[in-house]
Every structure is written in structure tokens, then in C-alpha cells.
């Protein structure tokens, strides 16, 4: 078995030598801190040696970059919180919101809705037109039928400044049904012409939000 030789006591450093070495190491570390680390990392140069070596400028750049990074992070945090703050202000009534225009108040007959039945008799070649008045977006359910023959028809509307707006037309029809949604405030309805060789009777039923209905032709 190999046994290490025990060192001679005379070869070991004395306490005084250890203290001296510790002091030298501490002084060297302090000098390194003051002359190199502080200038190069924090831009602090108590002795002026760091600026002479170009280390202070490096530290100042690092400090400036760190400050800019912190400012950018703070700005990003504020921007991220802005939508949430806006919602809180809106909920609390802290922000001024534009006031929407009050909705148009329909006529009493439009608000309540109405149902009408209109009966027409047309001789061969004769035409007739029935229209109702309604506001834009009003919905009217209709159903008309022809007895004794067939007719050509044109579903359309007009208003001041609008001479004609077509919804649909057809030929040789014996009846139609569906929903008519008013495209604008005005008069909406149907024109029929009897293309049969005998008199016909048209029965029109309407239901919805309109103010009046009458034959105009």
C-alpha cells in the first residue's frame, strides 16, 4: 500500500504568510473591482483608470441599454393594461360615449301591425295596382290568388326621389305568397294585368307593419 509522505512542518506556510497572502488577494480583488469591474459593468470609475482603458465607456453603454430595456418593458406593460383600463372606465362611466340617435318611432298602425284583405275584379286586359305605406325594414306577409284565369304581375315600390324599385315580377301567374321587407320608407305593392280571355278575381291578404293599404290604379 502506498502511503503519502507526511509533509515537513518547516515546508508549511506560517500564519503570518497566510495572512499576508489573504491580504494580497483581497487587495488584488479590490483593485480589480475598482479598476475593471465597476467601470466596465456599471460605468463607475473612481480612479480614472477605467476611462483610460476604455472600460468606462463600455459600462456606460451597458447602463444605458439596461435603462432603455426597463423603460420599454414599462411602456409595454402600460400598453397591455390599456384595453383593460378602458373597459373598466367604460363600465364605471368614466369615458364619454357618443349618444346614438333615437330610433324612428313608427306609426301606431305599424307598431301594432295589421291584417287586411283586398278583393279586385279585372276585365280582360285591365290592370290594377294596390300599395301599402311602410317604413324601411318593415316586414309584410302576403298571399294573393287569382280566380277565373291568370295575370301578369310586378311587385315594386316608390318614394319621393325613387320612381321605381322592383322586388319581382312574373307572367301567367295564378297566385304568389311570401314576405316583403320594405327597402326604404315609401309605398310598396303589386300591379296586376289580366291576360286571360275572361274576367278574373284577385284576392290579396296582407299582414304586418304598415300604415295603410289601398288601390291606386
From TrEMBL:
The chain crosses the membrane at residues 21-38. The keyword Membrane applies. Keywords: Membrane, Plasmid, Transmembrane, Transmembrane helix. This is Transmembrane anchor protein. The lineage of its organism: Bacteria, Pseudomonadati, Pseudomonadota, Alphaproteobacteria, Sphingomonadales.
